[in-house]
Fold Phosphoglycerate mutase.
Amino acid sequence: MSKYALVLLRHGEGAWNKENRFCSWVDQKLSSDGVKEALDCGKLLKELGYEFDIVFTSILSRSIQTAWLVLEAMGQEWVPIEKSWRLNERHYGALIGLNRAEMALNHGEEQVKIWRRSYGVMPPPIDESHPYFFEIYNDRRYNTCDIAKDELPRTESLKEVLERLLPYWEDIIVPKIKEGRRVLISAHGNSSRALLKHLEGISDEEIANLTLPTGVPVLLELDENLHPIKPHELLGDQGAIQAAIKKVEDQGKAVASKT
């Protein structure tokens, strides 16, 4: 029998998701479709009887905006939200802003899949010549992080995402779960994949094949030691979810870019 239920959520579609660009730490609001995804997610969770006592997000707007809209649709706007950079999307380094399909044409689909999905491979690091470097590192949201600004990552593999996420998970989120708080984590595709890898013991090789679509809640039922009692479940219409997964996977295919 499960003792705890944890819900993970990749934010709704952002503007650069629609444009098929590596967004990473560049701050983006939700697209109109992303707003609908978040509201629909909240309506689904309400219909299924979910209630939350606390929500955790990254410090990127698309994660926070998704949490707001989900809670609004659930009629639970009063639920507190806590934010941390440790739940941010993976830092894609020099790839930030580039179109995935164009990258697949130039470097091959397999290389793009390695950059996007592998556990241990880091993209080339961002430096001051990058057009978004100063937008990211001059952003005052990082002034109050628990590490110095100059220690923030310049690129990350999924392994590094998990390593910077785990202290927050263990020190902040786990105690809330064990207190009996009902927790929603509204984060990103890679921070959610990293946490699922940790909790479910997914191998380094298998994690490359785990795809989370935007706006689809993921249910984890956990025992008293926070071990899953069964595989995670994507909630909602399964046909629509599979179509959404294929859409995400096809972003790395070598097709002519429309942007």
In short: The chain is about 40% helix and 10% strand.
